[in-house]
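Hey,

Quick one before I head out. I ran the complex with zinc ion overnight. Inputs first:
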Amino acid sequence: MKITSNKQLILKFYTTGKNKNIEELYINDFDNFYQKYEVGNIIVSLLNSYNDIIQILDKYIRKIDKSTPLTLAELIKVFKNLIKNLETKKFYIISKLLEINFNKLRYRIENIEKYDLLADKEYNKFQGNILGTPEIYIRKRGFPNYAFKNFLLRFKRSFSNAKNIVEKNFNIDNNRDTNIPLKYELPKMFVEYFDNNLSYTYYITSITDLLLASTYNLHLSKKFILKCEYCGDLFIPKTNKKEQKYCYSKDEYGNYICRNKGRKNIWYRNKAQSNKSN
Ligand SMILES: [Zn+2]
């Protein structure tokens, strides 16, 4: 008997009613994870912390590269440590997505150890050179390391792909090929009518699915994302105007940092230019 996992993230988006433009994120089985966001904030918060998240993942990739072959129990310890690391920085969405997918990996490794040694593609690839030898059913040490490294690399790759899609979608990337139409598949989704209210529910297991679904919701809300001209962070303009230049980050006194500093820079630049031409 195989052990499996059905954990998923659920993203619910309301287009009407008192929760209009709200996204809820929770897990399908008993878990105390529940978050509520104004539409677009999931995308903005994930992409603005992109570099910090990648840095943490890279640290664990290096760690696993240097490590001696781990048992599954030891691997779980390393993984829990990674989750703790992410949650200290408040990267809860990332930690939940990793947990959901790690559960699958963990069951795969368990199944490989106990049952279907040959049914797993990645394991076959890892075994490579010992295929065809009588030791074929002997678990080769090092597979948990190998599989975990691939797991983190895959996650990084899909995060980076999804980031590119979102940036192209809102014309905020530096790539000039903006005339290529974007086509992508949304994750499994249900539309729900209740009491004249309409909502969408998506079943999500990957960062790509989450960012694509959320991007679609943002379009449904007729909102968009801009890049701050001062700090480079993404933000959703409250005025819904494309001309807005600066994000809303505030200093400890409640003043808008980027608007003030950005305008000051422009003032100095103009002054320098008019001095030159005089
Ligand atoms: Zn800014």
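The helical segments are 41-48, 50-66, 72-88, 92-114, 121-127, 143-169, 207-220, 257-277.

Talk tomorrow,
K.
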